[in-house]
Amino acid sequence: MQHLAKIPFPEVERLARAGKALVILPVGVVEEHGAHLPLGVDSFAAEAYATATAPHLEEQGYDVIVAPTINYGVAHQALNFAGTLTLQAETLKSLVVDIGRSLAKHGFNRLVILNGHRDLDHMRTLDAARSVLVDEKISQVLCTGFTSDPAVTGACYREGVKQFYRSPRPDREGHGGESETSVALHCFPDLVRKELIEQLEPNFDYDVEAFRNETEDYGTLSGGRGYFGWPRAASAETGKQLVLTRGRNIAQFILNAWGGL
Ligand SMILES: [Zn+2]
Fold first, then answer.
1. Quick one: pLDDT band at residue 17, thresholds 50, 70, 90?
2. Most CB within 10 Å of its CB: which of 8, 90, 149, 169?
3. pTM score over 0.85
4. How far is the CA of 206 from the centre of ligand 1 (A)?
5. Domain span at 13
């Protein structure tokens, strides 16, 4: 696995000439995730999943290149919390399309968008960017991670992970809860306010439909807490298993679509 921003151009040329390159573009956001987690959770998680996905693709003959993360996204749900930033959908779409076009110009025509941020507008926008690139016939593009197709999101994130959860209400775990806190404790523990986690009460009694359909904002839905579920159920070990499993899942999804080389 190579990071595009960390290698010089002759190596990029060699990778393009070899014809086996597959570029993963992690996409996240700057958004509140409760008082215990940093605003970059979704970006950092997307990067962790990219790293966990790569070896499975390399086993099948691909040269995996990870492009610099898009750290900004569309985030309407948490805008009332300090620090949450949002792009207009058109801005995000242009960013992804411009990156895809540039990659294709250099001979990289397999692009995997790996999105770590669940927001309906955000996910639809990534789909729209994918459509532009596919219609231009310059690259094959897949949307993975959180996507507007619940079946794809399920295949990437939910397959095989239930066994690792310890929350008494796994059906109520969501944004900033057991899953994201676990991934944070495993991948970027120094950025987690661990002393706060102990004090966080479960947030199980929220309007799940309004959460899923984004008909109410996170502040209203969570009574100002900004998390859904029970962060105290999280552990670094769970996070490790979630990242490994999801890396395998995402690779499998890509291989199902494109096959090996
Ligand atoms: Zn998140």
1. very high
2. 169
3. yes
4. 17
5. 2-165+243-258
